[in-house]
Design brief:
The chain is built from three helices and three strands. The protein is an alpha+beta fold. Strands 2-1-3 form a three-stranded antiparallel beta sheet. Strand 1 and strand 2 form a beta hairpin.
């Protein structure tokens, strides 16, 4: 098991990981570019309906950083990726932007 750094007393990394998962689960444009995220020894993905984009398991490492795996189609998609991060509600913000055509 990895060690938790002193900097991890803050909640920023976990908030970002949770927001990436919420975005991936949202079905909004670009959300299909993510395959899975790994953080604090757990993985989240859209693979299993029961744990759809929720952190599960153990032994996946990545205690000092967030690991994100992208779908092969993400590399070919040249469109801007409307990924809001570190906002209070990224999914709600994206739906609002989409409604305005932004």
């Amino acid at each position: 098991m990895g060690k938790r750094g002193v900097w991890r007393r803050g909640k920023t990394a976990r908030m970002l990981a949770d927001q990436l998962n919420a975005y991936a689960a949202s079905g909004l444009p670009g959300s299909d570019r993510l395959l899975h995220t790994v953080y604090e020894g757990q993985v989240a993905s859209g693979t299993y309906k029961k744990t759809f984009w929720k952190f599960r398991g153990s032994g996946y490492s990545h205690f000092q950083h967030i690991h994100v795996t992208f779908a092969p189609s993400a590399e070919k998609n040249g469109k801007v990726w409307p990924l809001p991060i570190l906002t209070r509600n990224p999914v709600k913000k994206l739906r609002w932007r989409k409604a305005l055509g932004l």
